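Please decode residue identities from the backbone states below.
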């Protein structure tokens, strides 16, 4: 038995939903942010009923924001290009790391607000790895990335780096160190 397609939203309802998502994305991106649903509704210029009609609770809103961030990463894997496969892969990793700054706080909220975890965290890892695998393998085949690491290990390393304060005098130094370590000549040095 197939599921019935969801009814199409009215244009104004879709605009409200898009506005809520955009405002919530900005609100959660602020340092130390933990915006309330009331704050998000206020910033979006919608009533609480409109907010809750779109997102029955904070968990559903955060899941949607997280899903959008993962969608962006998967889309970037398909659309990025560089002069070499390695350059394309490294550009995607840098984008993944930057997205981690947005995704990390959302993941923390998801873990805190869901009793048994939420499937979106597991699914997002699988989706991200599947999207990045073609870039990763092309970079390995071109000899620009070591062949003794997995994409999952690399992404885990980037996630771990997101939790480390970067030296303000050397922004991006940690990510450059990790990326330099992926180059084949780094393995033999």
């Amino acid at each position: 038995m197939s599921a019935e397609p969801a009814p199409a939203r009215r244009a104004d309802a879709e605009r409200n939903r898009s506005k809520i998502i955009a405002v919530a994305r900005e609100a959660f991106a602020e340092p130390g942010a933990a915006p309330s649903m009331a704050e998000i509704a206020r910033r979006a210029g919608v009533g609480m009923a409109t907010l809750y009609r779109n997102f029955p609770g904070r968990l559903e809103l955060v899941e949607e924001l997280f899903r959008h961030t993962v969608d962006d990463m998967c889309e970037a894997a398909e659309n990025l290009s560089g002069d070499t496969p390695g350059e394309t892969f490294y550009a995607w990793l840098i984008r993944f790391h930057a997205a981690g700054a947005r995704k990390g706080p959302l993941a923390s909220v998801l873990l805190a607000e869901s009793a048994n975890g939420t499937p979106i965290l597991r699914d997002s890892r699988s989706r991200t790895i599947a999207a990045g695998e073609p870039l990763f393998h092309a970079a390995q085949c071109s000899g620009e990335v070591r062949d003794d690491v997995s994409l999952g290990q690399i992404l885990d390393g980037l996630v771990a780096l997101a939790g480390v304060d970067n030296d303000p005098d050397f922004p991006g130094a940690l990510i450059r160190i990790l990326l330099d370590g992926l180059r084949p000549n780094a393995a033999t040095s």
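Observation: The chain has a mean pLDDT of 83.
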